[in-house]
Amino acid sequence: MTIIEAVMAIEDLAVEFGQHSQRVYAVNQISFSVHKGEWLGLVGESGSGKSVSLLACLGLLPKIGRVVSGRARFGDRDLLRLQERALRELRGRDIGMVFQGLSTALNPYVRVGAQIMEPLLEHRLASKPTAKAHAIRLMEEMGIPDSAQRFNSYPFELSGGMRQRAGIAAALAAEPALLMADEPTTALDTTVQVQVLSVLQEACRRRGMGVILVTHDLAMAAHVCDRIAVLYGGRIMEIAPTATFVSAPAHPYTRALQAALIDPSDPWRPLAPIAGVAAPITSKLTGCPFVTRCPSAMGRCHTEVPIVTLQGPDHLVACHRVQGGILDGD
Ligand SMILES: Nc1ncnc2c1ncn2[C@@H]1O[C@H](COP(=O)(O)OP(=O)(O)O)[C@@H](O)[C@H]1O
Ligand code: SF4
Ligand SMILES: [Mg+2]
Questions:
Q1: What is the pTM of this model?
Q2: Is residue 287 a contact partner of residue 302, using CB atoms and an 8 Å limit?
Q3: What's the rounded Cα separation, in Å, for the pair 164 and 139?
Q4: Max CA separation in the chain (angstroms)
Q5: Neighbours of ion ligand 3 (CB under 5 A)
Q6: Separation of alpha carbons 39 and 226, rounded Å
Q7: Is 50:231 a contact under the CB 8 Å cutoff?
């Protein structure tokens, strides 16, 4: 068996916001890793702690947020213990970033080509003419037509899909080992989403890059990711290879997410939305975060936080009712 090296391994990460009665436990002891050439999907409803987990590793939390514990191993370094200067060196060079609403994140006053060249120039990886040639090649690879001309365009002169492709080109420019893509296509129409995602997938596979794809869309994650980690209330509920998620999801929350998907073989089947809402966690958990919405909840679920345990090959689940990867009652 070949052991593939982890590009990044997060262990026991916890992040909080605010103080005293205003405190929010946004991320609670989460652990996961992403390997070279692997796509890991980080899936969960809005507010489940997906973005905060990544921002914490990049040193980009807003001021009222803080890392209270954990490690984020990247090569021989722990990202959570690096000074801002060292993190600035890593961001954009070793870790590429495509964040939510990127098309609006591109600087509207700077030409697209200059923004793609920026990581190469900022990290002194290439001279200006080399960086320009590289940027145009990347734009072509991203499927942006007339790249040499579009190099001089301002973001508003491109369509949403083309702006997103340009943003991805900027994220890949320095050939990072890891790409963090946070809802990279959410703002786009479905057909454009599929096109942009397949360009991104192809480009990352070619480079053997590790990718963390943050999305609220389980179907999208299942389509492009090798493994999926499901978050709820800032905790990991289930991590498994995508095939396991599709054929034998074990956690009641994962099952509920799956039931809420449109079945392509039966598009008229009524969807089963998950009852209740995911509220922010404002006090230390004493039980399962999903307990108020879980159809399988029992007494113990209110008083004991379920621990993530290995249930099968590469299959981790946090649920009192799951044994050997099987939900009690199946
Ligand atoms: N700037 C902030 N101030 C206070 N709380 C925040 C802030 N950003 C995020 N949070 C808290 O962290 C939780 C997780 O947020 P986030 O990681 O952005 O969710 P998502 O899974 O949608 O990306 C939110 O539910 C919220 O309670
Ligand atoms: S631990 Fe209990 S409440 Fe939580 S998902 Fe499992 S059965 Fe449901
Ligand atoms: Mg988010």
A1: 0.94
A2: yes
A3: 11
A4: 66
A5: 51
A6: 5
A7: yes
* Cα separation, 58 vs 192, whole angstroms: 29
CB atoms within 10 A of CB 71: 17
What the block records as the tokens of 170 is: 């900027």
Domains, the chain, ordered by start: 6-94+176-327 (3.40.50.300)
Based on its alpha-carbon atoms, the radius of gyration of the chain, rounded to whole angstroms, reads: 21
Cβ 296 under 6 angstroms from ligand 2: yes
Q: Which atom of ligand 1 is nearest to the CA of 55?
A: 17
Residue 1: both structure tokens together: 């068996």
- Is residue 47 within 8 Å of 19, Cβ to Cβ? no
Give the pLDDT confidence of 53-102 residue by residue, as tens digits. Answer: 999 999 999 999 999 999 999 999 999 999 999 999 999 999 999 986 54
Report yes or no: 164 and 170 within 8 Å, Cβ to Cβ: no
pLDDT digits (tens, 9 = 90+) for 220-232: 999 999 999 999 9
Q: Is the minimum distance from the CB of 291 to ligand 2 under 6 angstroms?
A: yes
**Ligand 1 pocket, CB under 6 A:** 17, 24, 26, 44, 46-52, 62, 64, 280
Reading the block at residue 274, the tokens are 């998950």
